[in-house]
Amino acid sequence: MERVTQKTLRLAQLALLAGLIVVLQWLGNMLTAVMPVQMSFVLIPIVIGGVLFGPMAGAILGAVFGVMTIYGVMTGGGLFGILFAESPVLIALLCMLKSTVAGAVGGFIAKALQNKNKQFLGVVLASAAVPIVNTGIFCGGMFLFQEQLMEFFANPNAAYIIFILLAGTNFLVEFAINLVLAPATERIVRAVGKTRV
Prior knowledge:
This protein is mainly α. The chain has one domain (2-194): Arp2/3 complex 21 kDa subunit ARPC3, CATH 1.10.1760.20. The protein is 86% helix and 0% strand. It has helices at 2-32, 43-53, 55-76, 78-86, 88-114, 119-142, 146-153, 158-194. Helix 1 packs antiparallel against helix 2 (43-53). It is elongated and about 60 Å long. The protein starts with a helix and ends with a helix.
């Protein structure tokens, strides 16, 4: 009976984190129309899930983020809407890959340090790794669209525009948010860990 209750609790907690990702990404998509840089809090639930439940949960929550990113690309237009129209499968794979791998990496880092009584360090390193992996895979994937990017920006240095202005600025914001909120994230993880059935 206790094992069933534990699984049910874990499933409910994962569902709550997934719902939080959907809401935060939806709000982020809405704010992108108003703000030049998206204030992305969506990586925090991915880190929490990876730290609490391991790499598989981090990957699942990352995949939820990937689906929401695809939705935003499909409905948002602009540069990524054009890239999606050109190659929907490749853009969808890139969206899923970047966030799913980022969630798994965060979970692996936290799990590696969890048994060594270094939970806070694990949370901080996972909080830093998730945006690094997410943005790194995104930037690598953008090289596949170099021709389309040059055409969109009417500039042969389009890759630099993407990396420095768009991805670079967004990465710095996501990275800063994750590191600033890492102590709060660790407290959430500790509190949820104490309430396990």
